[in-house]
Amino acid sequence: MIVEKHQITYRNVASKYYNFLPEEIHLAFRDFDRILSKYGFNVADTMFFSIISDPTASVMTAEIFRPIEESDFSAMPTSEGVNFRSYFSVDGMLMTRIMDQFDELSQVKYWELVKHIQEKDFTQSSPIFVEYKRSHSGVAYVEMSVGVR
C-alpha cells in the first residue's frame, strides 16, 4: 500500500554523506554515531537516510541523518563533514511501509514507489528516504518515502 501526502519532519538533525557497499550500510551508521558521540552529541532513537545514487549501483551514496538532543552544533568541526539543520522537513511525499524482511523487500518497495509515480504522472522531487522506526509496542519497521509534485 502506498500513502500519499506523507511528510518527514524532525528538529535538530545532523547528517553526513557516505559511499558504501549496500551490505555494509551498518558500518556507515556506526561511523556516524561514533563521530557524533566523539564530540558529545546525544542521538535520538531515530535514524533515516536518503538514497542519492542509483539504487542498483554496486556502491551506494547516501546522506545519513540522526536527530540529536542538542540545538547548538558549534562543537562539531567542519573537517568532519557533518551538516546540521535545526529543522528538517519534506512534505508532499509518497510512503510505503516494510514491517519485516527489510533487506528482501526494500527493492520491491522501491520499485512500487517508482511505478506509482509513473502511473499517477507525478514528478519525483526528492531522493528516496528510508526511516527506521519503532511502534509504541516496540515493533521495528521501516518507512520508505519520496517527494513528488
Quick structural gist:
With about 150 residues, the chain is α+β, with helices and mostly antiparallel strands. The protein contains 2 helices and 6 strands; from the N terminus they run βαβββαββ.
Q: What can you tell me about this protein's structure?
A:
The protein is α+β, with helices and mostly antiparallel strands and 149 residues long. It has one domain: Alpha-Beta Barrel (Multidrug-efflux Transporter 1 Regulator Bmrr, Chain A), CATH 3.20.80. Helix content is 21%, strand content 45%. The protein has helices spanning 25-38, 102-119; strands at 3-20, 47-51, 60-67, 83-98, 124-134, 140-148. The chain has a six-stranded antiparallel beta barrel with strand order 1-3-2-5-6-4. The mean pLDDT is 96. This is DUF5085 family protein. InterPro entries: DUF5085 (IPR031664). It comes from Lysinibacillus composti.
The tally of helices reads 2
Structural class: alpha+beta
CATH class: Alpha Beta
Report the average pLDDT across residues.
Answer: 96
Helix coverage percent: 10-25%
Radius of gyration, CA atoms, in whole angstroms:
16 Å
Distance between the termini: 19 Å
**Strand count, sense and closure of the main sheet?**
6 strands, antiparallel, barrel
CATH homologous superfamily (4th level) name: Regulatory factor, effector binding domain
Please write the string of helix (H) and strand (E) elements: EHEEEHEE
The share of residues in extended strands comes to 35-45%
CATH architecture: Alpha-Beta Barrel
- Tell me how many strands there are: 6
General form: globular
Q: What fold name stands as the CATH topology?
A: Multidrug-efflux Transporter 1 Regulator Bmrr, Chain A
